[in-house]
Amino acid sequence: MARRKQSGKSQAGRLRIVAGNWRSRLLDIADVDGLRPTGERIRETLFNWLTPTIEGSHCLDLFAGTGALGLEALSRGATKVVFVEKSAAAARQLRTNIGILEARGASVLQQDAAGFLRNAPGQRFDIVFLDPPFALDALEETCRLLAETGHLADNALVYIEDDRSRDEPELPQRWQVLKDKTAGNVRYRLAQATGSN
Prior knowledge:
Blueprint (H helix, E strand, L loop, with lengths): L13 E3 L9 E3 L11 H15 L3 E5 L5 H8 L4 E5 L3 H14 L4 E4 L3 H7 L5 E6 L8 H10 L3 E12 L11 E9 L2 E8 L4
Parallel strand pairs: 3-4, 3-6, 4-5, 6-7
Antiparallel strand pairs: 1-2, 7-9, 8-9
Helix pairs in contact: 4-5
């Protein structure tokens, strides 16, 4: 049986870092139902948007899953990423991958995203990645909690990924959408939280 030629894309069950210090590194992902990394083309577009702000930033990867967004941020110069993931298996694999990469500034918390936002005072982030499982329908509530709990630095950027067939979640009043795109069944946006606490 012929083997398919590698196209530079992530293999099934693996995650490929797109750019930065760990460019093209392949990492295993946990076998968890519904777990899917943000696509490479979407990540490339997102981090092109973030180029002026990613260096030295403090990031929060809520619903971290494979950690694709937070690991990409670290690879491209973020100073700190807090990964929050509810699944024990996904959190365990993420810790393993962070160890393989010898990633500094990375911490993994195995807990519910809403619980983290309600119970982790004093942590403020420049960039937040929101890519919950599409079936969860958690974006509107999560954005509200982010706006109310003081986790956003002044003019923080919030990346939001969702199923494009779903109604867009209502964003907090002082958030402004800077970028808005679709790719396949995915809608993804970058918002700025102006006037954050």
